[in-house]
Amino acid sequence: MVEQKEQLYEGKAKKVFATSDPDLVIVDYKDDATAFNGLKKGTIVGKGVVNNKMSNYLMGLLAKEGIESHFVEELDDRRTLVKHVEIVPLEVIMRNVVAGSLSKRTGLPEGTLPSMPVLELYYKSDELGDPMINADHALAFGWATAEELKTIETMARKINDVLKNFFAGVGIDLVDFKIEFGRYKGKIILADEISPDTCRFWDSKTKEKLDKDRFRRDMGGVEGAYHEMMRRIGLKE
Ligand code: UDP
Asked: Which residue from 58, 108, 113, 175 lies 20 to 30 Å from 102 (Cα-Cα)?
């Protein structure tokens, strides 16, 4: 049994605690929500439970498809034991449908279908507001090695294929999502979370938004959308 020790870090949506095993940490999901690089703040009641359980479920699904992640064991509604990784300072975004910042940047309307999934890299920096970068920047400034970038790209595309198919089966369009990777014992593994905070989910038929965009855009029905996503996946809260 690993024991929870001191808090190592508190982020916008999660706290991280050390454990009696230096290779493992505990993630504790909060209901706090932020958007626009922390400018908009609020609470989404029950979000921590949804994100914890959904992320763990999806990482389990990905494990069956050969994608290694930091997931070790769900401890309770909000807490999960994970591998203690060194986070690669890149946010990887995969897009199947144009939305959000891509729509603003290109002028293409939300809902436009690209002819192939689009992978984007952002440099993880709160002070800079996570600027978009390319692979050359990541290499030239030492944020990842060439081998790591290759692994990250291959894994990100596979993760997209698996998740897109899974969500299509429950009547959801996986529009886009953000993932992060970590270094663990010399390997690159999937880390952080996959949840309605980090994905865009649209109902396949009605195109209703079932994710954090309801909070970002003050659309109302935020909690309902998170619960609906749990119901679609078949998860109990
Ligand atoms: N995303 C995220 N964290 C970020 C930025 C984006 O989880 O710091 C997710 C977001 O929820 C969406 C996808 O990545 O599913 C693409 O986001 P986009 O670049 O369109 O930015 P946004 O419009 O959310 O600012």
From this structure: 58
User: What is the rounded distance in angstroms from the CA atom of residue 201 to the CA atom of residue 205?
Assistant: 12
Instruction: Identify the bridge partners of residue 202 per DSSP, sorted by sequence position.
Output: 173, 209
Whole-number Å distance, alpha carbon 211 to ligand 1 midpoint, is 11
Distance of CA 177 from the midpoint of ligand 1 (Å) = 7
The pTM (predicted TM-score) of the whole model is 0.97
CA distance 215 to 32: 11
Atom of ligand 1 nearest to the CA of 130: 8
Residues with CB under 6 A from ligand 1: 91, 93, 99-102, 130, 176-178, 198-200, 212
CA atoms of 213 and 217, how far apart (whole Å): 6
User: What is the pLDDT at residue 116?
Assistant: 98
117-141: average pLDDT:
98
Q: What is the pLDDT of residues 84-97, one digit of tens each?
A: 999 999 999 999 99
